[in-house]
Write a structure and sequence with these properties.
The protein is α+β, with helices and mostly antiparallel strands and 116 residues long. It has two domains: 83 residues, no CATH class; 33 residues. The protein is 41% helix and 27% strand. It is built from two helices and five strands, in the order E-H-E-E-E-E-H. Strands 1, 2, 3, 4 and 5 form a five-stranded antiparallel sheet that branches. The longest helix is centred in the last third of the chain and has 29 residues. It starts with a strand and ends with a helix. 4% of the residues are buried.
Length: 116
């Protein structure tokens, strides 16, 4: 089994990666990040950034009681609220449009690399 290689990164990059992944996961469940006052749920996490062999940087989340030796673990607290139906549909449409754009860009790059 391949062990992940623990690496460090500037805090700005760590936070940006973490927020992006957290927002994606939370919105897939029909929630969005918000302030404490607006929240329906609070989430306490311990996370660290790792680079797995052959993969990009990923945020790994550990159990609340888990001890992480030799890594730069960050404790993070987030708040989320349930999306209403209209917000959820809007986000779904935006995600679909982003996916279509990415697929179109990939197709163009593939054609260029094939000489066409």
């Amino acid at each position: 089994m391949n062990e992940p290689t623990y690496i460090g990164s500037p805090i700005k990059v760590f936070i940006k990666n973490f927020i992006k992944q957290a927002e994606e996961a939370i919105s897939e469940e029909g929630y969005k990040l918000c302030s404490l006052e607006e929240s329906h749920i609070a989430i306490d996490l311990t996370a660290t950034e790792v680079k797995e062999a052959g993969a990009s940087l990923k945020i790994h989340v550990f159990n609340a009681g888990g001890k992480i030796e030799g890594s730069n673990a960050q404790k993070i607290k987030m708040y989320a609220k349930k999306l209403d139906v209209e917000e959820e549909e809007h986000i779904r449409k935006m995600r679909s449009a982003e996916l279509e754009k990415t697929e179109a860009e990939t197709n163009v790059l593939n054609r260029k690399s094939l000489g066409g």
